[in-house]
UniProtKB/TrEMBL annotation:
InterPro entries: PP2C (IPR015655), PP2C_BS (IPR000222), PPM-type-like_dom_sf (IPR036457), PPM-type_phosphatase-like_dom (IPR001932)
Spans traversing the lipid bilayer: none
PPM-type phosphatase domain location: 78-432
Pfam families in the record: PP2C (PF00481)
Keyword Cytoplasm: no
Example GO molecular function: metal ion binding
Keyword annotations from UniProtKB, A to Z: Hydrolase, Metal-binding, Protein phosphatase
Sequence similarity: Belongs to the PP2C family.
The protein's name: PPM-type phosphatase domain-containing protein
Amino acid sequence: MDSMYARFKNVVVGAVVGGTDSGSSNDYHLPRHQKLEPKFPYSRPHFLSLDDEEIHISADHRLRPIIHPSKPLPYNAGYAECINAGKSRWNEDQAVYRQGVLTKPAVQFSIPYSYYGIFDGHAGVGAALCAANQLHHIIHEKLVDAQDDIWVDFNGKKSVICKQTDLLIIGALESAFREMDQLIAEDRTKYLAPGGCTACVALFILGKLYVANAGDSRAILCNNNNFQPLSMDFTPESERDRIRRLVEDQPNLIGNEFTSKEFLQPLKTTDLGKTVMFRDAHMKGWAYKTVEQEDLKNPVIVGHGKRSRLMGTIGVTRGFGDHDLYAIYTKVQIKPLLSCRPEVQVYKINSTDEKEVLVIGTDGLWDVVCCSKAAEIVQKSITNFSEKERYICAATCLVGFARGSLINDHNWQLKNGKQASCDDISVLVIPTFPYKLEYEKLCKKYNQKICYS
């Protein structure tokens, strides 16, 4: 035990003294799945290299230790995480990185790529574990399918990779997301994989960064206290129009429980026969109507901002899983309104030094840390720490800031006295400059022109 703790302390920082509270478990204990085993046993990201005892220590809900890798990731990229304050037994976030190569000996080409992903699970750890263990394999298969065209495009006479390569890689990511979701659906009869998860992944290839996001995790590019969003949050609030139009056009998706109409004020039975302002799913403006009994149904989206919920049940609208999720107190399935389709943004890497970094975090970070504050924290770490330490310190500081400090029992606060994040928090901090150099080296190897526009 002494040697285990000695090793573990090297990957734990910023702990607050306290006891152990394993919290409530809603992951692998659904009665109707009693005979099924999980496809992947619970673990933390592979690059943390934690054994079973260390995993249990990392799940201390009162200590909430901040965990980071004991060995550096490629180009000293940073990662840090901490568990929630008791809302679920295990940390339902997952993260992964992989390095791959597209190669074909017959024509002697070799194109390297790097893949990073963060998955925020809900209602169990199953879907996030499946995505962390399988999505990169699916993406690789999709890239291999397109690699001949990608190579021809790269090796052509043009001085810059044309839009065809962008479309091929975007298509590979989109089709991989769909296949991942289908795989989780098909595995339900064979394995226990409850719940769902969001997905935000980054692919570095040929001097570009492709960010594919489905859910409310977020990716931003930071440079000298400035930031550039590379994803949008997909929530019932941000996708209000898509969902309401879908259910208006296909009312069978919501049965008799909900309505796609939106009213200026919540309706009551006493409003029957009154004239009120409303709009249907295809209206931007407001009109008047007389309230009928059907108008008293629950709106398909309730609440606003971070508190918005789809059918009063779930706070995200894109991701993997949730194939067995029903609207609370109803028999209406929610999955038909959810989407596994990612938004993919493409960024041509043109950084001139190692100050530019990609930050990917689950909503446990972004719920309490705005993008400008995250950029400020990252910049301080880059300025104050060595090249080997700066990115892991940036990730650790981001998690530490969002987690705050334990003031009293189960009360975590930020330095300004506001409520800290009580959710699982996971953060990747990845420098982009090395991938620009990697691209330049590849171009030189194959005598290709380099274009930074």
